[in-house]
Design brief:
Oligomer: single chain
CATH class of the largest domain: Alpha Beta
Number of domains: 2
Bound molecules: N-hydroxy-L-asparagine
CATH architecture of the largest domain: 4-Layer Sandwich
Largest sheet: 8 strands, mixed
Radius of gyration: 19 Å
CATH superfamily of the largest domain: (Glycosyl)asparaginase
Number of helices: 10
Strand content: 15-25%
Length: about 325
Amino acid sequence: MGHSSRRAFLQKLIATGGTLGLSPWTLQSMLAQKQSPSGPRSVEPGSATMLSTWNHGMEANAAGFFALQQGGNAMDMIEAGARIVEADATGLSVGIGGLPDRDGNVTLDACCMDHTGNAGSVCFVQGVLHPLSLARKVMEDTPHVMLAGAGAEQYARELGIDEVELLTDTSRRAWEEWRKTSDYKPVINIENHDTIGLLALDDQGRLAGGCTTSGLAYKMHGRVGDSPILGAGLFVDAEIGGATATGLGEAVMKTVGSFLVVELMRGGRSPQEACEEAVHRIMDRMPTDDLQVGYLALSREGEIGGHAIHGGFNYAHTTAEAGRMIDASHG
Ligand code: SD4
């Protein structure tokens, strides 16, 4: 791409970024992404869709579409979106800045699945800025699906990934404040900045998904939630669709939630109906006054759905034409 057309493209991106409410920081990170040698390509309206949990999903989806325009596929959209949120130190529940466990350690969980059914996951990993990228490496470059703790960290070092301090001044102060009472009580919809679950359908019809989190704040050391567990926090079947979960991982794991959503879609439910039924499965089996779980689903045709136990769960839906936040139905 010539110098002037690149400048025009960047100006357009900055203009669109403004409309989407993207921070200058996000735009900068997007511009730092790899540029394709052939330059950006246009994405046909109606040909691609991205869904991500919570308000930060908006920036994640914009980064995903940017990756697509740079020649990426659905998995690149997922990784680009996850990286934006993982690197944002102001988020208290994903990547750097995530609240620690009860002993003050930030331990991260992430997984991904691509359109071929391949999957990768890391759990209980410390000092790694981009756990979803590490999960993708496990998926693409090892014979395994999941690496845990010190083994995942060793693999990151072998790949030349630098160790990063994930506890920030803000998250340290919050933890110190919490330690005064040490009252462990997961709060539903914590400040609308939670785990990010992402689902993408690219313009070639490929589906992929990802999930990345620092897990529940002040959890026991060693606790792993649903987010890195294939079938619980995420599941993608290219023939049917994908689903991802946010909320109390224990409830999602006990009902193998994301797999359940996809299987319900296989049986003929719409993504919305499937999310509702998976939520009801939890509501029928356990007391849910203090328990929040939300599901998102995307079919291979690009149909979307989202449902939660309680109000307050929202998600970002982005297409080549526009992006919007949707308040999920609940109950
Ligand atoms: C977990 N499911 O570790 C995650 C937490 C989460 O929105 O999703 N919060 O249980």
